[in-house]
UniProtKB/TrEMBL annotation:
Domain of life (superkingdom): Bacteria
An example molecular function term from Gene Ontology annotations: sequence-specific DNA binding
SMART domains for this protein: HTH_ASNC (SM00344)
Protein's UniProt name: Lrp/AsnC family leucine-responsive transcriptional regulator
Domain HTH asnC-type: 7-68
Lineage, highest ranks first: Bacteria, Pseudomonadati, Pseudomonadota, Alphaproteobacteria, Hyphomicrobiales
Organism: Hoeflea marina
SUPFAM superfamilies for this protein: Dimeric alpha+beta barrel (SSF54909), Winged helix' DNA-binding domain (SSF46785)
Annotated signal sequence range: none
Transmembrane segments: none
GO biological process annotation, one example: response to amino acid
């Protein structure tokens, strides 16, 4: 795991700008941060190398690709089978429909955010999930009726 690096006000501004629009040019970022283009490029490289910036992706509206359903799937695991956890984590990582996965406290053990084209597609996914992962005791699914907010923006402070 990379160690934390010191983050100053210019880094915070740069991170905030990138979270708004990662397509900005180095020159536009530099101007907004009050830095030279070369200093901005060096800061960006340091933030990427240290994994403060872990990736830059296109955010897609699933509805624009056709009918999409977002589901929140809470998994309860067999507590006496911790040796099966790596296989489940690999399955989650390899399954494109699983957008996010969180280990949680409370009633369940994991919470998955899943996007599929239909309930029927989710049924097939759920069936494979249970067949491939014997440490899942049960799961509970909630269908998202409306997206109120979607994002991965991290508050960077001042």
């Amino acid at each position: 795991m990379p160690e934390n690096i010191p983050i100053d006000a210019a880094d915070r501004k740069l991170i905030s700008l990138l979270q708004d629009d990662a397509r900005r040019t180095i020159e536009a970022l530099a101007q907004a941060c009050g830095l030279s283009a070369s200093a901005t490029q060096r800061r960006l490289q340091r933030l990427r190398d240290s994994k403060v910036i872990s990736g830059e992706i296109a955010v897609i509206d699933p509805k624009r690709l056709g009918t999409r359903i977002t589901l929140l799937v809470e998994l309860e695991l067999e507590r006496d089978r911790p040796e099966l956890m790596p296989a489940l984590q690999d399955w989650i990582a390899a399954t494109d429909s699983v957008q996010q996965a969180w280990q949680i406290t409370g009633r369940g053990d994991l919470l998955l955010v899943v996007v599929t084209r239909s309930i029927e597609e989710f049924d097939g996914l759920a069936e494979r999930m249970m067949e491939d992962n014997r440490n899942i005791r049960k799961f509970t699914t909630s269908v998202a009726l409306k997206t109120l907010k979607r994002g991965l923006r991290v508050p960077v402070g001042d």
